[in-house]
């Protein structure tokens, strides 16, 4: 499977969507992206796992990172891509192959940028952060990530979304006692004990704090549940997997304390944690980009890797095609107009020209 | 792995326990049992899958079936066997390799029975009844199952337990709508919707009807739960696997109606059903055996294959070593004294002699 970078950005998005790339299965798409970038003589290409980096080295005073992940959530009967009335449907179309296509077009076309450019196409963003390709890169090759400003092309309606919410995962575990289900009264059913855990989750009321003029929206949800030994055994363990999305005014410690308090009386194990990022729109580099794009910045609800850049002290925003409301949904889709708008705005800003 | 039938019944039980035979993995134990039986010239041996049948053909007026399953529930850190102060511990010791060992000893030693004998060692009793080796045999070789009376060596404290409760399995399904967990309020969480299902199960009060002087005890339990798409997706489906154990005064239709009514408002799918068996102690063949054994018959809570024999019109009882309360428990065990008592009582009854 090879990519045709001379195609328009909409066709290129469709090509990317049609290379299935569920997390942990990104070899094929990374190979295609790497091969396409290697054909561009003005870029230096580095590969780490299924993460591909392409950089200009023009010795300009500033450097901008533009980043996008290559993986998607699992298939949900939503491939191959389907173009209909200016909307491209299909797994990954919104989150975030529209953004990846813009990056590939910029990588090909912007040969004389005002600032040096680093394009990072990375693996495993949709799974536990320990697998995250960008996080790994900051450890293995910190110099490849260095920049004065970062743009993450996560879906944000082709407008700037600032900051991001944090995300943590916990296992909430109930413990009972096994017995034969024909004599269930001799055991203690751990799945039944999980009922009140689910009831608490149903009763949860989300906090919606305002930060730097942007209104965030937290969320606490079971994303998985498992329990059971055999069809005739009273189960002695049930685990509810919970995801807490928290506003960027909470630290990781605050978030953990909230969740432990919420599930008081239950065995809670933290399995994953990624801090959020404050909007940071007061930083000069961010301000300049906001002015260039125009419009009103919005809060970012989803955790994105802007938090990784924030942690490195690099100002970062989300700016990408697609409505994030449709990310991870069966009918995921992206308006072609969004993709084209992002391509145009970034090209203008990176070259200092107006189309 | 070969079995030594000249060993005493306790050692033979230990040999059987140490051949792991979790359901669907009975090849090794069936091979060993088959080889041991083939060494006995007074028996005709037939194998079907991992079910082994051995019969005398002496042309006597009556025939007795003695049956036991070879499989166990999953391992729970309870192998190998361990003998301690007259108690044999280990997976399958109680349910029901003590009974299987008695059968093997009788098969070897009772060469001149009063009634013709059929020993049935069968596979896959601890899983969905569609896999049950005895059920399969009644279809493939009904003549091998024919008899005037059947003794099932399920654990029953070396006393007679009569009848058995029925068992049915259902999936109770909740349906929501997927969304990204960062925008959970845009989806509907199917796992949260399962909370009230678990609450109903917790509130369930068991019926304990008296039938033919025996008191049964029903049970309704989640034996499994599953739900979840990915760690950052609001799940659109959750399935609670429920097992209903019902007293033998309910028909399969009654049982299904009860469960559907209990989970009214939810999507209920029946996945497995096996009717119970009324005690049937008024039948002459059963009565004669009860008199020979002595003591007070008890109700059988667990579903056992006496129901299969009942369906074929063959009077049947449960009579085997081990306390069924410990079946499927981590500390499963069987008193050696039970195993020896069952061997002695059956030998006396089958030969008409007293030791």
UniProtKB/TrEMBL annotation, chains A, B:
Top-level class of the enzyme under EC nomenclature: hydrolase
Keyword Ribosomal protein: no
Ranges of residues in domain Peptidase M20 dimerisation: 166-263
Organism encoding this protein: Nocardioides hwasunensis
Lineage: superkingdom: Bacteria
Keyword entries, A-Z: Hydrolase, Metal-binding
A Pfam family: Peptidase_M20
EC number: 3.5.1.18
Protein name: Succinyl-diaminopimelate desuccinylase
Lineage summary: Bacteria, Bacillati, Actinomycetota, Actinomycetes, Propionibacteriales
KW Cytoplasm (keyword) present: no
GO molecular function: succinyl-diaminopimelate desuccinylase activity
